[in-house]
Specification:
alpha/beta; Quinone Oxidoreductase, Chain A, domain 1; Rossmann fold; 2 domains; 7-stranded mixed sheet; 29% helix; 26% strand; oxidoreductase
């Protein structure tokens, strides 16, 4: 049995693209499973990690294997694992200090995975974990959306947006979204009730009395989001700056809490001005919540939108394509074809 595997590695921050190298297979802990990775999806956090943009929150040692979610087959289980067995088809999002899904094998805590939806291929399933959990946690856990609530989901044709629209509709919300003219029909099919062509219209001039905004863009779009909220409304952002509340909950030292408080003072003022709330979301792995998504996919209540699929050997092209930010849905790389060790 070989102890080596291929993996996409960076040796320093701001390396133009990762290189596929031969590295040692990961070692397992008692609560881990070892997975043969069949497919993995690309996410903005991969580019941010590569470029060092997450250094205030995440500390990595080099060489570092990139990749934040996957679908694959279990080939070994740790001594303390009772919920999964060899041969199970699973998917998941590893903890932030254990990323590395752009590889032939991955060791991951069993609490962070769920059984793959039976009606989806590995490629389709790999497109779900990070965007699915992010959307679920934003809309369900933080916003607590209820039937009849009005929510704006920014960038409806993107990786997050295509799934968030569907989840919001499953929760009974009235959904508005922003997109380009070429994607209007897609987001309508996904369930969007109100569609705004951001090239033609400023959403803050046409929407009002909204309960929540799911911000995936940051910048001016985030600042404008407060203008459409009713009193007591909330903005949940994955693209804005972390605030002091998040920094404290994340366990950051006092000087970083102060730094984030200073950096988000304008957002704090906007939230006060519009009698609303701002929350920064840094999603967390959860096999339990992923299992809920599995059920929804198997019941055909949700579907995946995949823009392009690349071979593992084409990772450099895949990352360059995804980095442009124009993909419709997700970009996925195929890594393995059989689970043999």
């Amino acid at each position: 049995m070989t102890t080596k595997m291929r993996a996409a590695v960076i040796d320093r921050y701001r390396q133009p693209q990762p290189t596929i190298q031969s590295v040692a297979r990961p070692t397992m802990q008692p609560h881990d499973v070892l997975v043969k990775v069949m497919a993995a999806s690309l996410n903005p956090i991969d580019h941010k990690t590569k470029d060092g943009a997450m250094r205030l929150l995440l500390h990595y040692q080099f060489p570092l294997i990139l990749g934040s979610d996957f679908a694959g087959e279990i080939v070994a289980v740790g001594s303390a694992v009772t919920t999964f067995q060899v041969g199970d088809a699973v998917y998941g999002r590893p903890r932030k200090d254990r990323i590395g899904t752009f590889a032939e094998y991955l060791a991951i805590d069993a609490d962070d995975i769920a059984l793959k939806p039976k009606n989806l291929s590995y490629v389709e399933a790999a497109a779900i974990p990070l965007v699915g959990l992010t959307s679920y946690q934003a809309l369900h856990d933080l916003m607590d959306l209820k039937a009849g609530d009005k929510v704006l989901i920014q960038a409806g044709a993107g990786g997050i947006g295509t799934l968030a629209i569907q989840l919001a509709k499953q929760l009974g919300a009235e959904v508005a979204t922003t997109t380009s003219a070429s994607h209007v029909e897609l987001v309508r099919q996904l369930g969007a009730d109100h569609i705004i062509d951001y090239h033609q219209t400023d959403f803050s001039t046409t929407l009002h009395d909204y309960d929540a905004v799911f911000d995936t863009l940051g910048g001016k779009n985030l600042a404008r989001a407060f203008q459409i909220l009713k009193p007591g409304g909330q903005v949940v952002s994955i693209a804005g700056r972390p605030d002091a509340t998040f920094a404290r909950q994340y366990g950051l030292p006092g000087w970083k809490v102060g730094l984030f408080k200073l950096a988000t003072r304008q957002l704090t003022k906007l939230a006060q001005q519009y009698q609303s709330q701002y929350q920064f979301l840094f999603m967390w792995p959860s096999g339990t919540e992923l299992a809920k998504l599995t059920m929804m996919f198997e019941q055909n209540r949700l579907r995946t939108i995949i823009d392009r699929t690349f071979a593992f050997e084409q990772l450099e092209q895949a990352m360059a394509y995804a980095e442009q930010g124009h993909a419709t849905g997700k970009v996925v790389i195929e890594i393995g074809t059989q689970a043999s060790i």
